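Lecture notes, part 5. Sequence design as translation. It can be helpful to think of inverse folding as translation between two languages: the language of shapes and the language of residues. The source text, in structure tokens, appears below.
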């Protein structure tokens, strides 16, 4: 739970107190075998090293984007990453968040990166196209993750969802299952072009990416406005991938709950986004390489940037549109 010492412990929110007056925050990560888990594990260690005298940061694994956005919105997490579909749906109370209701209790602090969706098979598989996947065992990742939502959207959007044998294994378990031929197809988010569990498998058993046709790509981006056409180039570290693959891309955002103090948001971002620290983090977890103040898409979606984050990025010379910078009063 997101903690803020004795003050928050006394509130009606589901927080627990600590013996220290330091503000303590729980940071949501991701599932084992995915890229978010090591990214936030390393970041939490860095934050405690640099800011330990003022704040305490606690790392918590999660089920991914849906879980992170839901828990940040409710105050169970102080901070986490989320795909733009989940961020927007939580903000508006639509889609997967319709029962939750609209939440304006979080803000954006950074654009993490653009992700691509990966669909892969063993290199010796007879599957060459999406049509070939009819009747096959297709893993759509663990429910609760943004990657799973995107996988489901793909197969529903192409009219294939009812024609596949769907599984919902996590990143690591799905990698093992593909290697053991218990599943035929592995669907996942990329970082942006690879995923650890799949890349590791390819060293033992080569894998091949399945790309969309241009018609399939357009069909998906027309139905789901959060997606844009993209191309995954050949990845040398993925053994068996010998040609580029058409895919879809979408933004990943860093979100924080309103209970996180302005000073904590500013200080946290200042540490993480410091060029030297960011380089160090990127060496451990490549997901951090593309952290930026690219907030332009939020103007269209009407989602707000945290004022403390806007202050930090403006000090770095970034152009943050004023119309999407807003605190929580009257939101």
């Amino acid at each position: 739970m997101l903690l803020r010492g004795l003050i928050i412990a006394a509130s009606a929110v589901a927080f627990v107190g600590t013996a220290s007056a330091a503000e303590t925050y729980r940071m949501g990560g991701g599932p084992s075998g995915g890229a978010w888990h090591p990214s936030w594990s390393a970041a939490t260690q860095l934050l405690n090293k640099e800011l330990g005298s003022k704040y305490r940061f606690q790392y918590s694994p999660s089920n991914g984007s849906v879980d992170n956005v839901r828990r940040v919105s409710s105050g169970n997490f102080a901070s986490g990453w989320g795909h733009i579909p989940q961020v927007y749906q939580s903000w508006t109370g639509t889609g997967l968040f319709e029962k939750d209701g609209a939440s304006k209790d979080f803000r954006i602090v950074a654009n993490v990166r653009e992700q691509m969706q990966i669909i892969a098979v063993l290199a010796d598989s007879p599957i060459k196209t999406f049509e070939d996947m009819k009747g096959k065992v297709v893993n759509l990742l663990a429910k609760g993750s943004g990657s799973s939502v995107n996988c489901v959207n793909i197969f529903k959007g192409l009219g294939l969802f009812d024609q596949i044998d769907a599984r919902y294994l996590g990143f690591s378990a799905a990698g093992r299952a593909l290697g053991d031929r218990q599943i035929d197809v592995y669907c996942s988010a990329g970082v942006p072009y690879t995923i650890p569990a799949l890349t590791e498998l390819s060293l033992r058993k080569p894998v091949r990416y399945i790309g969309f046709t241009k018609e399939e790509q357009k069909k998906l981006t027309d139905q789901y406005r959060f997606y844009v056409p993209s191309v995954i180039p050949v990845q040398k570290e993925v053994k068996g991938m010998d040609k580029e693959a058409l895919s879809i891309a979408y933004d990943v955002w860093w979100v924080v709950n309103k209970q996180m103090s302005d000073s904590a948001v500013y200080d946290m971002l200042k540490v993480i986004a410091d060029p030297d620290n960011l380089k160090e983090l990127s060496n451990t977890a490549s997901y951090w390489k593309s952290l930026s103040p690219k907030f332009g898409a939020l103007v269209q979606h009407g989602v707000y940037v945290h004022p403390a984050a806007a202050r930090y990025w403006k000090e770095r010379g970034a152009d943050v549109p004023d119309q999407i910078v807003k605190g929580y009063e009257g939101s």
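The translated text above is only one of many valid answers, since several sequences can fold into similar shapes. Residues 257 and 321 are 21 Å apart (CA to CA).
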